[in-house]
Specification:
about 90 residues, mainly alpha, 4 helices
């Protein structure tokens, strides 16, 4: 089992609104797992939560803006990986 943290504990530690957490989860920006009616976030997903909460609270980016930023960052990562793969092939 991967290490994880409950929604309530995460909200308390990061001092964010539970509605913000729920909005991230409902929009698909944050992957969660539910067990015994308790929602958990994997430690592997914490960097996503931290990045999105920083954008939301520090830079006042709204939820649609977070969705766009998240999509573009994921797309850039895919393109970066494809570029690296093409560079390794060196057809010449």
């Amino acid at each position: 089992m991967t290490e994880r943290i409950s929604r309530e504990e995460l909200v308390r530690i990061y001092n964010v609104e539970i509605t913000f957490f729920d909005a991230l989860q409902e929009s698909g920006l944050l992957k969660t797992q539910t067990e015994n009616d308790i929602m958990y976030v994997s430690y592997d997903e914490l960097h996503v939560f931290e990045r999105l909460s920083n954008l939301y609270y520090d830079l006042e980016v709204n939820l649609p803006g977070l969705e766009i930023i998240h999509y573009l960052q994921a797309k850039m990562e895919v393109l970066k990986n494809e570029n690296s793969k093409l560079r390794r092939q060196k057809p010449w």
